[in-house]
Request: fold
Amino acid sequence: MTQEEKSNWRLDGLWTGELNAAIKDERIGAARTPFYENHKWGAHSWLNLNLYSNRWRFEARVEGYQNSILRNPEDVYTRYGLGYFNASYSTPKWTIEAGHFYEQIGQGLIMRSYRDLNLQIDNSIFGAKLKWHLPANQHIMVYGGWPTEDFSLHDMFNAGGEYRNTWKISDVVLNSGAGVSWKRYHSALTDALIDELRYYHPRDRVDLHRNGWLGTLFQEVYAGPFTWVSEFAVKFHDPYYNAQASRHLVTGEEIPGRFETKPGQAFYTQMSLDLEGISLGVEGKYIRRFINKSDPFSFDYRNELNFIPPSADVRTYRLQARYIPATQFLGEKSVNSFIFIPLGDHLLEWKNALIFGLDGEKFYDDFDLQWTWQRENDRWVAGAMYQTYNQSVYEGKSGNRIIRSTIPYVEYYLTWAEDKSLKTEGQALFTKQDKGSLYFLSMEYAWGGSWTVFGSGMYQPRSELWYPSTGLFFTKGSGRYGLSFVKQLDGYVCSGGICRYEPAYSGFKFEFQQRL
Amino acid sequence: MIRLIWILILWLVWISCDDEIPYELVQPQAGQQKVLVEEISGVRCPNCPDGSRLLEALNADFDSSLIVVTYHAGSFSIPYPESKYDFKTDQSVALMEMLGRPLGYPAAAIQRKPVPGENTFQRYSNTWTKVISEVLSSDPKVDLELEVVTAENEVVVRVSALFLESLTQPVFLTMYLTENGLIDPQADTRAGDEFVPDFVHNHVLRAILTPLTGQLWGNGFEALDLKRDSLLFSFDNFPGVADPSKSDVVAFLHTKEGVLQVEKAKAFPR
Reply:
């Protein structure tokens, strides 16, 4: 370490957290869990610290969970520890990292290690990673390590790499690459699998391998307003649980669910054209047996080693997100398209998602038309979406439950006097299925550059239930603090394309975020 | 460095070439192998009771693994004038024709194992122990279960078979109705005048519930295939059965090479 480097050391950080206090409400289902019945409160917090110089960088994240409902709202979770530590050294030609690290190969079909702490996702890999920056915009990345979960390591070694070359043909920029991910299963994992597989009927015998492989080829093309991204990936010898396949019993019966190691394929492509008067885009996806987990026994999305986003546009804070079509890793083909037409201050957006099973059965579709009118001090957003959602497929409900819903929404956002703003929003979800229709109104007022207060209410006519929420947020410098009272309908909470089911919530929340 | 990466890749490919993890599937626990003894007899056969006594002793020696069916046929099977019953039936005679006419008595077909070099299944009693022992030394190929449900005189027999090995030849199911505790005269060399007027006749074949050669169950089965079948009959159709409560159903699966497994259940389980 040179004297110059020593003098350039900097330290910064981010401290975030949330404290929840329970107010039991049997009517909405916020009850009968340890959080509501026993502990009455819970909290979680992350303290990120970064120490870095020109070439060195040390990152650490201290995590604490006390009666936390973040991991599993049906239970509480209490753990403290160092959740992440990374040391890296960079030169203009290469970068080496050790400890926990995040990475992605291609679009993430075969490997994406990432964090989304809002859903307590942190599937970092603990090991080492090396990146070379080769001449002519070529890059090579290799890594090796153990997938992590909750301060521990999985019984699997994962290594791989990516070659990427950015090159040009005239004005067309191309980004071409290939990647591979290798999974070496520890005997603890294979023994556990064998303990299960050895009781399978000979017809269902599974060939089990010590190593699993995933490979991918990807290509990105940027030609002026035209963008085309595509990736094709395969996997083989990787065990996964196929909940849709059936397995024979010696009694002659069949039961659903079995392990398999059959090869899988995934194809993803996205094309868009950005012209002055119109933007068009289409996204397509084909997935066949492409579950890639660090633990084949797990049903937890936290154990996924790759990332394939849902085909529908996820709008977390709209009722459109009530029925979200999570990616079906066992089999899905989908098309997602959009058209944006700017007309002066106005923007018209048309989005359409179509998702089918590999046998052609329709899983989901939506048709969303949105209008935005943006002026100097205010903005109108209004639209409507029609949605068809196969609840049996996405939520495992029995039968063939199809939910058809129409979701109109309108939002008005107004700013005045430099530091005041008001946002009002009205939404409805009309459906005869599931729990029936929902109506939602909210208002948010911000003033003085520091304060925000909001109030909202959701009404569910079929059960005659109200879900009121209100809160106050204060922002000062690099800190943000909020206290709110929340009654929340059960449903899906989405973040970064990942959605999970959350039971109803009732109680106070204190949340904070402070840069250090 | 590039060379190092190539070496690493080659090493990975090499260790992945033969990386299948061997493991054995758990086989279901097979039931006890049982032996079908189709004993030919006749009320006038003085040596036949000796055969029956030997079979009782062997059954005790072989841990109750014998299922004996006694059918009356041949020249010794003509009833005495004082006989209440005629155990000989058209079916029992046909069975004898199929299994072979014995040259001497006692004789029995053991697990329908053909006698090597001869066109018969009939074996003399001095070979029974050896054949039974051979049969019992091998693992069962089928796990056979028999369940009988009776309502009034109607009987439902349910058979289920779990094949423990794959079989590539036709498999047949045969079912017998037998009766125990029939008291009737019997010739017996051990008796003073070689005649016992109140001999207790057990496991006497009263009816063959399936075709004589068996009901075809399949032309082959895979290991762990499970097959179920059921058969319905009424005691009203078998007036010869003296006391249904003392009757049994015997079911067995067989191929041309012999019986795979046999089971017996009370025909009147109440």
About this structure: The two ends of chain B are 83 Å apart (CA to CA).
